[in-house]
Write a structure and sequence with these properties.
Elements lengths: L1 H24 L4 H18 L8 H28 L12 H18 L6 H7 L11 H5 L1 H39 L4 E3 L13 E6 L2 E6 L2 E3 L7 H13 L3 H10 L16 H34 L7 H12 L14 H9 L2 H19 L7 H29 L1 H5 L2 H21 L9 H7 L6
Protein backbone atom coordinates (compact mmCIF):
# COMPACT_ATOMS: atom_id res chain seq x y z
CA UNK A 1 0.00 0.00 0.00
CA UNK A 2 2.86 2.36 0.75
CA UNK A 3 4.38 1.85 -2.71
CA UNK A 4 1.01 2.39 -4.33
CA UNK A 5 0.52 5.62 -2.41
CA UNK A 6 4.02 6.83 -3.44
CA UNK A 7 3.30 6.03 -7.10
CA UNK A 8 -0.01 7.83 -6.85
CA UNK A 9 1.70 10.90 -5.38
CA UNK A 10 4.30 10.89 -8.11
CA UNK A 11 1.66 10.63 -10.83
CA UNK A 12 -0.29 13.41 -9.17
CA UNK A 13 2.80 15.66 -9.08
CA UNK A 14 3.57 14.88 -12.74
CA UNK A 15 -0.02 15.67 -13.63
CA UNK A 16 0.27 19.01 -11.87
CA UNK A 17 3.47 19.81 -13.78
CA UNK A 18 1.82 18.85 -17.04
CA UNK A 19 -1.24 20.98 -16.26
CA UNK A 20 1.08 23.90 -15.49
CA UNK A 21 2.88 23.42 -18.83
CA UNK A 22 -0.44 23.24 -20.65
CA UNK A 23 -1.56 26.42 -18.90
CA UNK A 24 1.61 28.25 -20.03
CA UNK A 25 1.37 26.99 -23.63
CA UNK A 26 -2.27 28.04 -23.94
CA UNK A 27 -1.73 31.50 -22.49
CA UNK A 28 -3.08 34.28 -24.68
CA UNK A 29 0.22 36.06 -25.16
CA UNK A 30 2.51 33.01 -25.22
CA UNK A 31 2.55 32.65 -29.01
CA UNK A 32 2.93 36.41 -29.48
CA UNK A 33 5.91 36.40 -27.12
CA UNK A 34 7.55 33.57 -29.05
CA UNK A 35 6.93 35.43 -32.33
CA UNK A 36 8.58 38.52 -30.85
CA UNK A 37 11.61 36.46 -29.77
CA UNK A 38 11.82 34.90 -33.26
CA UNK A 39 11.77 38.38 -34.84
CA UNK A 40 14.47 39.64 -32.47
CA UNK A 41 16.56 36.51 -33.15
CA UNK A 42 16.26 37.07 -36.92
CA UNK A 43 17.36 40.70 -36.52
CA UNK A 44 20.32 39.56 -34.42
CA UNK A 45 21.34 37.06 -37.11
CA UNK A 46 21.26 39.81 -39.75
CA UNK A 47 23.27 42.17 -37.50
CA UNK A 48 26.26 39.84 -37.07
CA UNK A 49 29.59 40.84 -38.64
CA UNK A 50 30.60 37.90 -40.89
CA UNK A 51 34.09 39.29 -41.63
CA UNK A 52 35.43 40.20 -38.19
CA UNK A 53 34.28 37.41 -35.91
CA UNK A 54 35.77 39.02 -32.78
CA UNK A 55 34.00 42.33 -33.32
CA UNK A 56 32.48 43.91 -30.18
CA UNK A 57 29.10 43.72 -31.83
CA UNK A 58 29.41 39.96 -32.27
CA UNK A 59 30.33 39.53 -28.59
CA UNK A 60 27.11 41.25 -27.54
CA UNK A 61 25.07 39.29 -30.06
CA UNK A 62 26.60 36.03 -28.77
CA UNK A 63 25.07 36.57 -25.32
CA UNK A 64 21.77 37.54 -26.93
CA UNK A 65 21.92 34.26 -28.86
CA UNK A 66 22.33 32.40 -25.56
CA UNK A 67 19.19 34.11 -24.29
CA UNK A 68 17.21 33.35 -27.46
CA UNK A 69 18.29 29.71 -27.40
CA UNK A 70 17.25 29.51 -23.77
CA UNK A 71 13.78 30.80 -24.61
CA UNK A 72 13.38 28.34 -27.48
CA UNK A 73 14.64 25.49 -25.28
CA UNK A 74 12.09 26.39 -22.60
CA UNK A 75 9.34 26.45 -25.23
CA UNK A 76 10.40 23.05 -26.57
CA UNK A 77 10.56 21.41 -23.13
CA UNK A 78 7.17 22.62 -21.90
CA UNK A 79 5.56 21.57 -25.18
CA UNK A 80 7.11 18.11 -24.83
CA UNK A 81 5.70 17.82 -21.32
CA UNK A 82 2.31 19.16 -22.39
CA UNK A 83 1.86 17.13 -25.58
CA UNK A 84 3.90 14.05 -24.81
CA UNK A 85 6.73 12.77 -26.97
CA UNK A 86 5.63 10.23 -29.57
CA UNK A 87 3.28 7.41 -28.55
CA UNK A 88 -0.16 8.99 -28.75
CA UNK A 89 -1.86 11.10 -31.47
CA UNK A 90 -1.13 14.79 -31.21
CA UNK A 91 2.21 14.24 -29.47
CA UNK A 92 5.20 16.51 -29.99
CA UNK A 93 7.19 14.49 -32.53
CA UNK A 94 4.16 13.74 -34.71
CA UNK A 95 4.16 17.32 -35.96
CA UNK A 96 6.75 18.20 -38.63
CA UNK A 97 6.97 21.79 -37.41
CA UNK A 98 7.84 20.56 -33.91
CA UNK A 99 10.53 18.33 -35.40
CA UNK A 100 11.97 21.40 -37.14
CA UNK A 101 11.98 23.27 -33.80
CA UNK A 102 13.73 20.32 -32.15
CA UNK A 103 16.45 20.19 -34.84
CA UNK A 104 17.12 23.93 -34.66
CA UNK A 105 17.27 24.05 -30.86
CA UNK A 106 19.31 20.84 -30.56
CA UNK A 107 21.81 22.07 -33.14
CA UNK A 108 22.28 25.33 -31.24
CA UNK A 109 22.71 23.53 -27.90
CA UNK A 110 25.29 21.09 -29.32
CA UNK A 111 27.22 23.97 -30.90
CA UNK A 112 27.20 25.87 -27.60
CA UNK A 113 28.42 22.77 -25.74
CA UNK A 114 31.55 22.55 -27.93
CA UNK A 115 32.12 26.29 -28.34
CA UNK A 116 35.15 26.36 -26.02
CA UNK A 117 37.07 23.46 -27.59
CA UNK A 118 39.21 23.30 -30.72
CA UNK A 119 39.88 20.75 -33.42
CA UNK A 120 38.78 19.82 -36.93
CA UNK A 121 35.92 17.58 -35.83
CA UNK A 122 34.82 20.10 -33.22
CA UNK A 123 34.67 22.83 -35.89
CA UNK A 124 32.31 20.63 -37.86
CA UNK A 125 30.10 20.22 -34.80
CA UNK A 126 30.15 23.97 -34.10
CA UNK A 127 28.98 24.59 -37.65
CA UNK A 128 25.59 23.32 -36.49
CA UNK A 129 24.98 26.89 -35.37
CA UNK A 130 24.17 27.53 -39.02
CA UNK A 131 20.81 25.89 -38.28
CA UNK A 132 19.88 29.16 -36.56
CA UNK A 133 18.95 30.55 -39.98
CA UNK A 134 15.91 28.23 -39.86
CA UNK A 135 14.47 30.11 -36.90
CA UNK A 136 12.39 32.51 -39.06
CA UNK A 137 10.55 29.45 -40.41
CA UNK A 138 9.07 29.00 -36.93
CA UNK A 139 6.78 31.95 -37.68
CA UNK A 140 5.00 30.02 -40.45
CA UNK A 141 3.39 27.61 -38.00
CA UNK A 142 2.14 30.41 -35.79
CA UNK A 143 0.57 32.58 -38.49
CA UNK A 144 -2.33 30.74 -40.24
CA UNK A 145 -2.16 32.81 -43.41
CA UNK A 146 1.57 32.19 -43.84
CA UNK A 147 1.02 28.50 -43.17
CA UNK A 148 -1.71 28.38 -45.83
CA UNK A 149 0.63 29.94 -48.40
CA UNK A 150 3.46 27.57 -47.43
CA UNK A 151 1.18 24.54 -47.69
CA UNK A 152 0.02 25.79 -51.08
CA UNK A 153 3.61 26.02 -52.35
CA UNK A 154 4.47 22.56 -51.01
CA UNK A 155 1.36 20.95 -52.52
CA UNK A 156 1.94 22.64 -55.87
CA UNK A 157 5.43 21.07 -56.04
CA UNK A 158 3.75 17.73 -56.75
CA UNK A 159 2.47 19.05 -60.08
CA UNK A 160 5.47 21.25 -60.81
CA UNK A 161 7.51 18.15 -61.69
CA UNK A 162 5.39 17.46 -64.78
CA UNK A 163 5.67 21.07 -65.95
CA UNK A 164 9.41 21.01 -65.24
CA UNK A 165 9.83 17.99 -67.52
CA UNK A 166 8.00 19.81 -70.33
CA UNK A 167 10.13 22.90 -69.62
CA UNK A 168 13.36 20.90 -69.99
CA UNK A 169 12.12 19.26 -73.19
CA UNK A 170 11.35 22.64 -74.77
CA UNK A 171 14.68 23.99 -73.53
CA UNK A 172 16.41 21.01 -75.18
CA UNK A 173 14.61 21.71 -78.47
CA UNK A 174 15.69 25.35 -78.47
CA UNK A 175 19.23 24.37 -77.45
CA UNK A 176 19.52 21.98 -80.41
CA UNK A 177 18.17 24.65 -82.77
CA UNK A 178 20.62 27.21 -81.35
CA UNK A 179 23.56 24.83 -81.85
CA UNK A 180 22.55 24.37 -85.50
CA UNK A 181 22.25 28.12 -86.03
CA UNK A 182 25.23 29.50 -84.09
CA UNK A 183 27.84 26.78 -83.50
CA UNK A 184 31.37 28.05 -84.12
CA UNK A 185 30.12 31.57 -84.91
CA UNK A 186 30.77 33.29 -81.60
CA UNK A 187 34.48 33.93 -82.16
CA UNK A 188 36.00 37.38 -82.44
CA UNK A 189 39.36 39.10 -82.70
CA UNK A 190 40.40 41.75 -80.20
CA UNK A 191 41.21 43.85 -83.28
CA UNK A 192 37.74 44.45 -84.72
CA UNK A 193 39.15 45.04 -88.21
CA UNK A 194 40.17 41.39 -88.48
CA UNK A 195 37.51 38.76 -89.18
CA UNK A 196 39.57 35.58 -89.60
CA UNK A 197 41.75 33.68 -87.15
CA UNK A 198 44.66 33.58 -89.59
CA UNK A 199 44.65 37.36 -89.81
CA UNK A 200 44.31 37.85 -86.06
CA UNK A 201 48.04 37.93 -85.39
CA UNK A 202 50.58 40.53 -84.41
CA UNK A 203 49.67 43.77 -82.67
CA UNK A 204 47.32 46.68 -83.22
CA UNK A 205 46.93 50.21 -81.86
CA UNK A 206 44.31 50.53 -79.14
CA UNK A 207 43.02 54.10 -78.75
CA UNK A 208 41.88 54.43 -75.15
CA UNK A 209 40.76 58.05 -74.70
CA UNK A 210 43.91 60.14 -75.06
CA UNK A 211 46.34 57.23 -74.81
CA UNK A 212 47.50 54.97 -77.60
CA UNK A 213 48.94 51.55 -76.77
CA UNK A 214 50.07 48.58 -78.84
CA UNK A 215 47.99 45.51 -77.92
CA UNK A 216 48.42 41.92 -79.12
CA UNK A 217 45.72 40.52 -81.40
CA UNK A 218 43.92 37.56 -79.81
CA UNK A 219 41.33 35.19 -81.24
CA UNK A 220 38.73 34.65 -78.52
CA UNK A 221 35.31 33.17 -77.95
CA UNK A 222 32.46 35.02 -76.27
CA UNK A 223 31.68 33.98 -72.68
CA UNK A 224 28.28 32.61 -73.69
CA UNK A 225 28.07 30.63 -76.91
CA UNK A 226 26.26 27.73 -78.61
CA UNK A 227 29.12 25.40 -79.54
CA UNK A 228 27.47 22.43 -77.84
CA UNK A 229 24.15 21.55 -76.24
CA UNK A 230 25.34 22.05 -72.64
CA UNK A 231 26.63 25.55 -73.35
CA UNK A 232 23.46 26.24 -75.31
CA UNK A 233 21.42 25.25 -72.22
CA UNK A 234 23.43 27.64 -70.06
CA UNK A 235 23.25 30.48 -72.58
CA UNK A 236 19.49 30.10 -73.07
CA UNK A 237 18.94 29.96 -69.31
CA UNK A 238 20.90 33.21 -69.00
CA UNK A 239 18.74 34.73 -71.71
CA UNK A 240 15.55 33.60 -69.93
CA UNK A 241 16.61 35.45 -66.74
CA UNK A 242 16.43 38.74 -68.64
CA UNK A 243 19.91 39.78 -67.48
CA UNK A 244 22.53 40.45 -70.16
CA UNK A 245 20.50 38.87 -72.96
CA UNK A 246 20.78 41.96 -75.27
CA UNK A 247 24.52 41.22 -75.50
CA UNK A 248 23.81 37.62 -76.54
CA UNK A 249 21.24 38.90 -79.05
CA UNK A 250 23.80 41.30 -80.55
CA UNK A 251 26.37 38.52 -80.87
CA UNK A 252 23.79 36.32 -82.60
CA UNK A 253 22.76 39.06 -85.04
CA UNK A 254 26.41 39.87 -85.80
CA UNK A 255 27.41 36.21 -86.29
CA UNK A 256 28.61 35.40 -89.83
CA UNK A 257 30.12 31.97 -90.55
CA UNK A 258 31.91 29.30 -88.56
CA UNK A 259 35.38 30.28 -87.34
CA UNK A 260 34.89 33.83 -88.59
CA UNK A 261 34.54 37.11 -86.74
CA UNK A 262 31.34 39.12 -86.40
CA UNK A 263 29.91 41.69 -88.76
CA UNK A 264 27.46 44.23 -87.27
CA UNK A 265 23.86 43.42 -88.24
CA UNK A 266 24.85 40.61 -90.61
CA UNK A 267 21.78 38.45 -89.92
CA UNK A 268 19.10 40.58 -88.31
CA UNK A 269 16.54 37.82 -88.93
CA UNK A 270 18.18 35.79 -86.15
CA UNK A 271 16.39 38.02 -83.67
CA UNK A 272 13.20 36.08 -84.50
CA UNK A 273 14.70 33.10 -82.65
CA UNK A 274 14.90 35.12 -79.44
CA UNK A 275 11.42 36.59 -79.89
CA UNK A 276 9.92 33.09 -80.12
CA UNK A 277 12.07 31.91 -77.20
CA UNK A 278 10.88 34.76 -75.00
CA UNK A 279 7.25 34.07 -75.86
CA UNK A 280 7.60 30.37 -74.95
CA UNK A 281 9.73 30.58 -71.80
CA UNK A 282 9.71 33.87 -69.82
CA UNK A 283 6.05 34.53 -70.73
CA UNK A 284 4.30 31.20 -71.30
CA UNK A 285 5.97 28.93 -68.76
CA UNK A 286 6.19 31.54 -66.01
CA UNK A 287 2.45 32.13 -66.34
CA UNK A 288 1.87 28.37 -66.16
CA UNK A 289 3.75 28.18 -62.85
CA UNK A 290 1.81 31.13 -61.46
CA UNK A 291 -1.50 29.64 -62.61
CA UNK A 292 -0.60 26.31 -61.00
CA UNK A 293 0.02 27.94 -57.63
CA UNK A 294 -3.22 29.93 -57.89
CA UNK A 295 -5.22 26.80 -58.74
CA UNK A 296 -3.62 24.91 -55.85
CA UNK A 297 -4.46 27.76 -53.48
CA UNK A 298 -8.08 27.73 -54.66
CA UNK A 299 -8.30 23.96 -54.23
CA UNK A 300 -7.03 24.25 -50.68
CA UNK A 301 -9.59 26.96 -49.98
CA UNK A 302 -12.35 24.73 -51.35
CA UNK A 303 -11.08 21.82 -49.26
CA UNK A 304 -11.15 23.98 -46.13
CA UNK A 305 -14.77 24.92 -46.85
CA UNK A 306 -15.86 21.44 -47.94
CA UNK A 307 -17.58 20.84 -44.60
CA UNK A 308 -19.87 23.80 -45.21
CA UNK A 309 -23.46 22.90 -46.13
CA UNK A 310 -23.47 25.38 -49.03
CA UNK A 311 -21.84 24.74 -52.39
CA UNK A 312 -19.11 26.91 -53.84
CA UNK A 313 -21.42 28.77 -56.24
CA UNK A 314 -23.98 29.34 -53.49
CA UNK A 315 -21.32 30.79 -51.20
CA UNK A 316 -20.11 33.03 -54.06
CA UNK A 317 -23.65 34.31 -54.63
CA UNK A 318 -24.08 35.08 -50.94
CA UNK A 319 -20.73 36.87 -50.76
CA UNK A 320 -21.62 38.89 -53.85
CA UNK A 321 -25.01 39.84 -52.41
CA UNK A 322 -23.42 40.93 -49.14
CA UNK A 323 -20.56 42.93 -50.67
CA UNK A 324 -22.37 44.28 -53.76
CA UNK A 325 -22.85 48.02 -54.03
CA UNK A 326 -25.68 49.26 -56.25
CA UNK A 327 -24.70 51.36 -59.24
CA UNK A 328 -26.41 54.73 -59.37
CA UNK A 329 -26.84 56.95 -62.41
CA UNK A 330 -28.03 60.52 -62.34
CA UNK A 331 -31.17 61.48 -64.27
CA UNK A 332 -32.92 64.87 -64.14
CA UNK A 333 -36.31 64.76 -62.45
CA UNK A 334 -38.09 67.14 -64.84
CA UNK A 335 -38.48 65.26 -68.11
CA UNK A 336 -39.64 68.41 -69.90
CA UNK A 337 -36.55 70.49 -69.08
CA UNK A 338 -33.65 71.34 -71.36
CA UNK A 339 -31.28 69.53 -68.99
CA UNK A 340 -33.22 66.27 -69.41
CA UNK A 341 -33.09 66.50 -73.21
CA UNK A 342 -29.35 67.18 -73.00
CA UNK A 343 -28.91 64.24 -70.60
CA UNK A 344 -30.84 61.93 -72.93
CA UNK A 345 -28.57 63.03 -75.77
CA UNK A 346 -25.21 62.46 -73.98
CA UNK A 347 -26.21 59.02 -72.64
CA UNK A 348 -27.49 57.80 -76.00
CA UNK A 349 -25.64 55.08 -77.88
CA UNK A 350 -24.94 57.21 -81.03
CA UNK A 351 -23.24 59.88 -78.90
CA UNK A 352 -21.07 57.30 -77.12
CA UNK A 353 -20.10 55.63 -80.41
CA UNK A 354 -19.24 59.02 -81.92
CA UNK A 355 -16.93 59.81 -79.02
CA UNK A 356 -15.26 56.40 -79.36
CA UNK A 357 -14.67 57.03 -83.08
CA UNK A 358 -13.13 60.43 -82.32
CA UNK A 359 -10.84 58.88 -79.71
CA UNK A 360 -9.74 56.23 -82.21
CA UNK A 361 -9.10 58.86 -84.90
CA UNK A 362 -7.15 60.98 -82.41
CA UNK A 363 -5.00 57.95 -81.60
CA UNK A 364 -4.30 57.43 -85.33
CA UNK A 365 -3.27 61.08 -85.67
CA UNK A 366 -0.84 60.70 -82.77
CA UNK A 367 0.70 57.70 -84.54
CA UNK A 368 1.29 59.76 -87.72
CA UNK A 369 4.11 61.82 -86.22
CA UNK A 370 7.64 61.07 -87.41
CA UNK A 371 11.01 62.75 -87.40
CA UNK A 372 11.81 64.97 -90.35
CA UNK A 373 8.20 65.55 -91.43
CA UNK A 374 7.52 68.44 -93.85
CA UNK A 375 6.24 71.73 -92.45
CA UNK A 376 2.80 71.46 -94.06
CA UNK A 377 2.44 67.98 -92.54
CA UNK A 378 3.24 69.30 -89.07
CA UNK A 379 0.75 72.16 -89.53
CA UNK A 380 -1.93 69.67 -90.58
CA UNK A 381 -1.36 67.55 -87.47
CA UNK A 382 -1.51 70.67 -85.26
CA UNK A 383 -4.81 71.72 -86.81
CA UNK A 384 -6.21 68.21 -86.34
CA UNK A 385 -5.11 68.35 -82.72
CA UNK A 386 -7.00 71.64 -82.26
CA UNK A 387 -10.10 70.10 -83.88
CA UNK A 388 -10.06 67.04 -81.63
CA UNK A 389 -9.42 69.15 -78.53
CA UNK A 390 -12.40 71.33 -79.47
CA UNK A 391 -14.66 68.30 -79.93
CA UNK A 392 -13.60 66.78 -76.61
CA UNK A 393 -14.09 70.13 -74.89
CA UNK A 394 -17.60 70.30 -76.36
CA UNK A 395 -18.31 66.79 -75.03
CA UNK A 396 -17.12 67.86 -71.59
CA UNK A 397 -19.35 70.96 -71.62
CA UNK A 398 -22.41 68.99 -72.77
CA UNK A 399 -21.94 66.43 -69.98
CA UNK A 400 -21.55 69.17 -67.36
CA UNK A 401 -24.83 70.69 -68.55
CA UNK A 402 -26.56 67.29 -68.59
CA UNK A 403 -25.36 66.01 -65.22
CA UNK A 404 -24.62 69.22 -63.37
CA UNK A 405 -21.13 70.11 -62.07
CA UNK A 406 -21.38 68.13 -58.82
CA UNK A 407 -22.84 64.96 -60.36
CA UNK A 408 -20.38 65.20 -63.24
CA UNK A 409 -17.35 65.26 -60.92
CA UNK A 410 -18.62 62.32 -58.85
CA UNK A 411 -17.50 59.95 -61.62
CA UNK A 412 -13.74 59.31 -61.63
CA UNK A 413 -13.71 58.88 -65.43
CA UNK A 414 -15.37 62.26 -65.86
CA UNK A 415 -12.71 63.83 -63.63
CA UNK A 416 -10.03 62.15 -65.74
CA UNK A 417 -11.71 63.42 -68.92
CA UNK A 418 -11.98 66.95 -67.51
CA UNK A 419 -8.31 67.07 -66.48
CA UNK A 420 -7.22 65.74 -69.88
CA UNK A 421 -9.27 68.36 -71.75
CA UNK A 422 -8.00 71.10 -69.46
CA UNK A 423 -4.42 70.01 -70.06
CA UNK A 424 -4.90 69.93 -73.83
CA UNK A 425 -6.43 73.42 -73.86
CA UNK A 426 -3.60 74.76 -71.71
CA UNK A 427 -1.05 73.17 -74.01
CA UNK A 428 -2.62 74.74 -77.11
CA UNK A 429 -2.75 78.16 -75.47
CA UNK A 430 0.89 77.92 -74.42
CA UNK A 431 2.31 76.53 -77.65
CA UNK A 432 0.16 78.19 -80.31
CA UNK A 433 -0.17 81.68 -78.84
CA UNK A 434 3.59 81.63 -78.04
CA UNK A 435 3.28 82.59 -74.41
CA UNK A 436 6.56 80.76 -73.93
CA UNK A 437 8.80 78.59 -76.16
CA UNK A 438 6.80 75.55 -77.35
CA UNK A 439 7.12 72.17 -75.68
CA UNK A 440 6.67 69.62 -78.49
CA UNK A 441 6.15 66.66 -76.18
CA UNK A 442 3.24 68.17 -74.26
CA UNK A 443 0.59 67.80 -76.95
CA UNK A 444 1.10 64.06 -77.61
CA UNK A 445 1.26 63.46 -73.88
CA UNK A 446 -2.10 65.09 -73.22
CA UNK A 447 -3.83 63.69 -76.28
CA UNK A 448 -2.55 60.18 -75.67
CA UNK A 449 -4.55 60.16 -72.42
CA UNK A 450 -7.74 60.16 -74.49
CA UNK A 451 -6.97 56.57 -75.50
CA UNK A 452 -7.62 55.49 -71.90
CA UNK A 453 -11.21 56.71 -72.25
CA UNK A 454 -11.95 53.90 -74.69
Amino acid sequence: LRSLSLSFCRCLSLLRVRRLCHYIVTLRYFEMSILLVIAMSSIALAAEDPVWTNAPRNNVLKYLDYAFTGVFTFEMVIKMVDLGLLLHPGSYFRDLWNILDFIVVSGALVAFAFSGTKGKDISTIKSLRVLRVLRPLKTIKRLPKLKAVFDCVVNSLKNVLNILIVYILFMFIFAVIAVQLFKGKFFYCTDESKGLEKDCKGQFLDYDKDEVAAMPREWKKYEFHYDNVLWAFLTLFTVSTGEGWPTVLKHSVDATFEDQGPSPGYRIEMSIFYVVYFVVFPFFFVNIFVALIIITFQEQGDKALSECSLEKNERACIDFAINAKPLTRYMPENTQSFQYRMWKFVVSAPFEYSIMIMIALNTVVLMMKFHGAPDFYEVMLKNLNIVFTTLFSLECILKIIAFGPLNYLKDAWNVFDFVTVLGSITDILVTEINVRPPTPTATPLNNSLYTALL
